[in-house]
């Protein structure tokens, strides 16, 4: 008995991932912390980490100790960097495994200092230069540095901040670069290497720092540019696909899907085997979304349901059950669907559910 193929799957192009990493390096001239939190933006945490591990990156950026643990258990050698403040209950494991936290408060400093009495912990200092999500405000940096002098259990090996509007507000972002560079230049570098990092994907594409030596690309690595004018530089890594399960011939005036969207013409309606239960957004319902079948864009009909969608294939010269359909990929960008659904590419990628099998090319 053969195993049934998936109704919906995501093809992950690891060659495209490597290409995008190369572009990030060439564009910035800096070392790279690859951000692979949230299951590598839906692409598969461990599989993407395995593809990146031979690249000898200084860090892989993760959101929490649980993600770092999965890398450890998979034998990944690249050091996890914990993006954001840590919970007290996470810190013992972070210290014991030698993962790198970013220090966002004096309380974290005190706790990690106690945990590092026998073996000092490598940590970075987080600066809040405008994000408001964690780290020391500019006027607090002096206090933080004085505190670190009393913490022999911590070795300061870097400093970083985050850009909140690099893809929206160039004027603020340029002022933020200036503020961060000034702060970073005032911090004594007592270790080698000492990593200074600010640029996310949009930051490394359109801005220049005088102090940073490490970038933190996320979305760019997965082939989607937060700044559309740079999209041609990179290659989408994920293609979301399904197949036609059945084609129904419906008359004008017939209803389609929940809510009964009424057809305005006699229609060949193809049913695809995925829906919002797979992460395809219900918000795309009746928003002029399209699906690629046999190299032709076909309109979505009616509302997205949990396990199925319906598309109009009336104008296709040939379409039958089993034909492959692309929901997004290199010829139909996830960022375009995100805009139509009122969302962002980051959300659409990360909400593709585990029911969608990942296939690595």
Describe the structure.
The protein is α/β, with parallel strands linked by helices. The protein has two domains: 14-224, Alpha-Beta Barrel (TIM Barrel); 238-360, Lyase, Ornithine Decarboxylase, Chain A, domain 1 (Beta Barrel), CATH 2.40.37.10. 29% of the residues lie in helices and 24% in strands. It has eleven helices and 18 strands. The strands form three sheets. The chain has an eight-stranded parallel sheet with strand order 8-7-6-5-4-3-2-9. Strands 10-13-16-15-14-17 form a six-stranded antiparallel β-barrel. Helix 5 packs across helix 6 (106-115). The longest helix is centred in the middle third of the chain and has 16 residues, at 170-185. It is elongated and about 80 Å long. The two termini are 25 Å apart. The model has no long low-confidence stretch (mean pLDDT 97).
Biggest pleated sheet: 8 strands, parallel
The CATH topology label of the largest domain is TIM Barrel
Count the domains: 2
Shape assignment: elongated
* Annotated CATH homologous superfamily of the largest domain: Alanine racemase
Series of H and E elements: EHEHHEHEHEHEHEHEHEEEEEEEEEHHE
Q: What's the CATH architecture of the largest domain? A: Alpha-Beta Barrel
Widest beta sheet: strand line-up: 8-7-6-5-4-3-2-9
Strand content: 15-25%
The CATH C-level name of the largest domain is: Alpha Beta
Query: How many angstroms does the end-to-end distance come to?
Result: 25 Å
The percent of residues in helical segments reads 25-40%
Number of helices: 11
What is the arithmetic mean of pLDDT? 97
